[in-house]
Amino acid sequence: MLLRAYGIARSLVMYHGIPGRHRRASRLYGEFLGPGDIGFDIGAHVGGRVRVWRGLGARVVAVEPQPDCLRVLRLFFGRDRRVVLVPGAVGAEPGRARLALSTATPTVSSMSPGWIKAVTTDRGFARVRWDRSIGVEVTTLDELIAVHGVPAFCKIDVEGFEADVLAGLSRPLPALSFEYVPSAHDAALEALDLVDRLGDYAYNYSPIETMRLASPRWLDAAELRRRLERIRPRGRSGDIYARLRESGPIASTPGRTSD
Questions:
Q1: Distance from C-alpha of 250 to C-alpha of 152, rounded to nearest angstrom
Q2: Pairing verdict, β 83-87 and 59-64
Q3: Does the pTM of the predicted model rise above 0.90?
Q4: 46 touches 11 (CB < 8 A)
Q5: Which is nearest to 24 in space by CA: 234, 253, 258, 252?
Q6: Which of 36, 64, 89, 237 is 20 to 30 A distant from 162 in Cα terms?
Q7: What pLDDT, in 10s, does the model give residues 137-146?
Q8: Which of 7, 2, 42, 48 minimizes the C-alpha distance to 167?
């Protein structure tokens, strides 16, 4: 029980307690979401993005399989009619699956055994232990869209299960993001290939939790792959952002960072 409380407290500090992060996140996500838009938060964890998106006036569909995180989400957003909490996970097809939980570091709980095996070679994961597992209900992005509508933006942060999530999507979305971990480089490239097949996307990259886009211009898929190859040896995780070119140009984001 104490270890579970420590893990959730650590996540709350990380996603709700760092000064300036909420402001930076609002600037970044304001490029994709506005009042009345729908945002899908796949892997909502303790609701850091939900809070930001609600501040932008968006409606949020937050999907989270971890019971302890769901308790936090219900405490923070359970009375907000413009937030829909979906217990469970998203994958290639509906059904049930096993979620490996890391009690002390719930941010890295995962449904991908291959991803867990890959990241254990990373020094940053040296102390992480996946100490138990639970069964969870699985839906698909297509099913979520059928119920809630097409999101203006979809964040996918599911610790190596991103490609499985994208495999359950049959149409391009206006904009989305998914996680990149250098020690699981191939998993990210698989997800990138799936996005690229869905539509004519331009891409950018944000180093881990900086909430700033690294490139002053949006890239094609080949340019992004080359950039990820340069990032890979440094072990710098982050998020890949994709936006349909037909959605129009993105305004320059203040405070661009360099990779």
A1: 14
A2: parallel
A3: no
A4: yes
A5: 253
A6: 36
A7: 999 999 999 9
A8: 42
